[in-house]
């Protein structure tokens, strides 16, 4: 099964991206450890999309271990090591990045793993990841995957050859409006027909959502107002 149905209200208009990511994660004819950079502007829905896939039962069953890492640039490898080796950050405080890599590798030995680095990849991070990735994340040829989020698509090239890139584009005006209605639990046609006041408010909202290149996160926040 290479598709996942995502009922979550905030995942709307990303069916193609969602199915492409699932297919990549479960690609049975490619057992090598692979890396993908999911790129898009801030608020484009990268974290929401990846998190829904990450938490889906199908993906949970597919990998022996999964780790979701959120980190600032300075503590990236400490946070990765803390998650993977289940060590406290205090114990890792005095360790250099290169000294943590063997410990990470040892903890992942023989396991099929999915690691998500929700870090907004920068060129500096890319250099650090490229420097340590082979030592930290072994290729056991069992389908392990590493997914990295970034606001900057050009940073993916700094990770080296063989890194796949998935760029999230902007939603169409129809998708933006449907995302709004989906989060609002609102029957637009019924509301417009109910009374003149509701119709005017909804028409104004529709113009705003359809006319401007509003990001998914902005639409969700608009609904919350």
Automatic annotation (TrEMBL):
Protein name as it appears in the record: Uncharacterized protein
Originating organism: Persea americana
Lineage: Eukaryota, Viridiplantae, Streptophyta, Embryophyta, Tracheophyta
């Amino acid at each position: 099964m290479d598709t996942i149905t995502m009922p979550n209200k905030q995942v709307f208009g990303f069916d193609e991206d969602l199915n492409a990511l699932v297919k990549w994660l479960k690609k049975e004819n490619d057992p090598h450890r692979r890396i993908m950079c999911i790129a898009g502007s801030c608020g484009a829905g990268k974290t929401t999309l990846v998190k829904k896939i990450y938490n889906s039962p199908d993906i949970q069953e597919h990998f022996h271990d999964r780790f979701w890492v959120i980190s600032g640039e300075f503590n990236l490898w400490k946070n990765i090591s803390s998650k993977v080796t289940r060590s406290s950050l205090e114990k890792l405080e005095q360790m250099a990045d290169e000294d943590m890599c063997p410990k990470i590798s040892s903890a992942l030995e023989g396991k099929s793993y999915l690691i998500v680095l929700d870090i907004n990849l920068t060129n500096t991070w890319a250099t650090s990841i490229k420097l340590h990735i082979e030592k930290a994340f072994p290729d056991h040829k069992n389908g392990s995957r590493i997914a990295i989020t970034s606001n900057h698509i050009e940073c993916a090239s700094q990770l080296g050859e063989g890194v796949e890139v998935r760029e999230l584009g902007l939603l169409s005006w129809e998708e933006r409006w449907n995302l709004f209605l989906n989060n609002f639990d609102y029957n637009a046609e019924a509301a417009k027909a109910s009374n003149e006041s509701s119709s005017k408010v909804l028409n104004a909202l529709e113009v705003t959502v359809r006319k401007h290149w509003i990001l998914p996160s902005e639409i969700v926040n608009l609904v919350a107002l």
